[in-house]
Amino acid sequence: MLKFMLSLWTVFFSAVALADGGGGGSTVGGGCRVFIEDFALIFSAYQPQLTGDARFCTEIPGLGSTNLVIDYETQEGSTAQKERIDLDRRIKEMTIEVEVKKGDQSIFKRPAESFKKGSIESVINFQEAGNYVVEVKLTDPSGKTIESHFPIEVGKGEGALRNLIIAAVVIGAAVYLIYLSSAGFRTRVDSLLGRIKK
After folding, report:
1. Chain-centre distance of CA 150, in angstroms?
2. What are the residues whose beta carbons fall under 8 Å from the beta carbon of 91, sequence distance 6 or more?
3. For residues 119-158, b (16+ Cβ closer than 10 Å) or e, as one string?
4. What is the mean pLDDT of residues 107-134?
5. Is 183 a member of any domain?
6. Dist CA 26 CA 20 (whole Å)
7. Less Cβ crowding at N or C end of the chain, within 10 Å?
């Protein structure tokens, strides 16, 4: 019985590691870099109801409520070169606009807003599996616009398999706790396992 539980936990942690990979272009932790000219942004997708705090990039495993986060990868600090500090100053003066499309149809649009904090988060309810495009647009105070488009794939990943594995681990843990706490149940299980071995 103990070997069975250890096997379940091994499979579970393997699934967690797989989910944290996050899909194409991932960085450490699962997000991915998006470059808009000289600016580097970190794009991360979360599905807390399905995968906890796992971060994804271009492959988002499940449907439903999804948090899309865009952070500016700051270059500030004592080792930053002057041009990098200038980039940090410039992007904080810009506005950012985010749109998600499926084919020609816009399914989500976040109007332009200040990017002074260097981070925005949007929640999208994906209803349909398939390929989408995320469009990120930066506009400076003079009205000059720069943008980047990148594809994401939703609802085709390992989310369903991972959920099944998690459910199996939870059920297995519950059975093991009953096995440890109930002498009668333990006797029946041991008897059954003894017959199977024969």
Report:
1. 16
2. 39, 72, 115, 118, 138
3. ebeeebebeeeeebebebbbbeeeeeeeebebebbbbebb
4. 95
5. no
6. 9
7. C
CATH number at residue 129: 2.60.40.2550
Residue 105 burial (C-beta neighbours within 10 Å; 0-12, 13-18, 19+): exposed
How many domains in the chain? Answer: 1
Model confidence pLDDT, tens digit, residues 84-118: 778 888 999 999 999 999 999 999 999 999 999 99
166 exposure class (CB count in 10 Å sphere: 0-12, 13-18, 19+) = middle
> Phi, psi at residue 165, to the nearest 5°?
-65, -45
In a domain, 136, yes or no: yes
| Within a domain: 46 | yes
Expressed as residue numbers, the domain containing 43 is 23-154
pLDDT > 60? residue 30:
no
pTM of the model: 0.63
What are 66's two structure tokens? 């999804």
pLDDT at residue 45, as a whole number: 94
